[in-house]
Each structure stands twice: as C-alpha cells, then as structure tokens.
Amino acid sequence: MKFKAIVFDMDGVLVDSERFHSKVLDNFFLESGIDASHLTPKDFVGSVLKDMWPKVLREDFTEARAAQVHQDFLDYDAQFPIPYKELLLPGVTDALKTFSEKGYKMAVASSSRRHEIAEVLDTHDLRQYFEFFLSGQDEFEKSKPNPAIYLAAMEKLGVEPSETLIIEDSHYGIMAGKAAGATVWAVKDNYFGINQEQADRFIETLTDAKNLLADSE
Questions:
Q1: Three-state DSSP class for residue 161
Q2: What SUPFAM superfamilies has UniProt attached to this entry (predicted)?
C-alpha cells in the first residue's frame, strides 16, 4: 500500500517528553496527598488527564472534586516547563524533511494541549512540514482511544484511512488509530511497559519509518 498521508502523535514520537510528564505527575500526587498507587505510569501515557480523574480518585470522585484537582494540577504543572529544546528524538527532522520532499501530506494529532504542540513545532522549526495540528485535550470532547482526532485529521487532509499511516507509541493512541481504520506503526516503548500489541509494525525511530517507506516505493 502506498500511503498518501502520515499523521503523527507528538509525545514519544517527535519528542521524548513522556518521562518528564510522568515525573511531574508523580510529584504532584505525592505533594497533594493523592493516592494513585493503584495506577502505573503507563496508565497515563497518551491519555488526556481530565479523563483519568475518575480512575485516580475512585470513591472520592465527583465532578467538582475532579475539576478542582485538575486545576490544582495545571497550576502545579505550570511551575515545571518541559525542556522541549533538549527532547527532540533522533532522526525526526531528517525524516520529516524526506517525507515532505516525497509529497506526503502530514499532520500532528496529539493529546497534548495546543500551546505545547505549538511550542514543540516552533522550538525545532518543524511547523513547516505539517499542514496543521490537532489537540485532543483542547479540541475534542472524546480523547484517545476514541478515534475522533484521527478521523478529523484524515478528513482535513482529504485522505481515506487506507491511504493513511499513523505513527504512535501509546496504547490509547494505537487503539485510536486502529479504530479509525488506518495503518498504525508504533515507536517501541522501552521504558513504561506499554501494551503496543495492536500496532501493525514497530519502529525504533522515525529513521526506521523513513527507510521502510523508501523500501516500499
């Protein structure tokens, strides 16, 4: 199959930011006295945090309580800017340049907030390679594993699922891509123990994706 479009997740695919996110969240739970020991870091990878509060708070969950904890976390998180400048994954710029030269339509569909996606793209001068980016946290009522963000990306790119390659790393993201009907390649997780078994293929870096697509031409 010759793909016409590639849609990328961001955290864990373009930038190695998930361990930073995880550490900040763990520290927030510790300092706030919230017991999240029944969950593991991989449960949060690729998620939209507002959707996780019922699982975190369990019997203490109410909409009001979740809203307050969520705001408390946003205030806490703002104290620890993610050092995106240091976190670009190997081979990203070269692969995106090659994909662009070969005429692939490209977009980012991430669960991160819009300002975080924009910061990554601008910090590393990557915006030029993408037609647009979508934020699951800011723009969609239902987040990954719901396929809405990927269905919207494909519609906006003007391609069918059969013409689309999605590059992901998280369990939620892989499920979303498959539910959208696209082919999904997963950047191998060597840290969290994420369930990636639904992916169609595994890659170490975007350089692998570049080489695999070149071989299929």
A1: helix
A2: HAD-like (SSF56784)
Count other C-beta atoms under 10 Å from residue 81's C-beta.
Answer: 10
> Alpha-carbon distance 118 to 36, whole Å?
30
Name the token pair of 176.
């979303």
Element (H, E) at 6: strand 5-8
Tokens of 85: 């400048």
Torsion of CA 200, 206, 212, 213, to 10 degrees: 100
Q: Which amino acid is at 48?
A: V
List 186's β-bridge partners, or say none: 168, 202
CA dist., res. 139 & res. 2, Å (int): 30
Burial track 145-183 (b if 16+ CB lie within 10 A, e otherwise): bbbbbbbbbbebbebebebbbbbbbbbbbbbbbbbbebb
Residues facing residue 109 across a β-bridge: 134
> In angstroms, rounded to a whole number, what is the distance separating the alpha carbons of residues 134 and 118?
10
Cα gap 56→190, rounded to integer Å? 25
E-assigned strand segments in 78-200: 105-110, 132-135, 164-168, 183-187
User: In this model, does residue 57 exceed pLDDT 90?
Assistant: yes
pLDDT digits (tens, 9 = 90+) for 80-114: 999 999 999 999 999 999 999 999 999 999 999 99
Please, what are the domains in the chain?
Answer: 5-16+85-215 (3.40.50.1000), 18-78 (1.10.150.240)
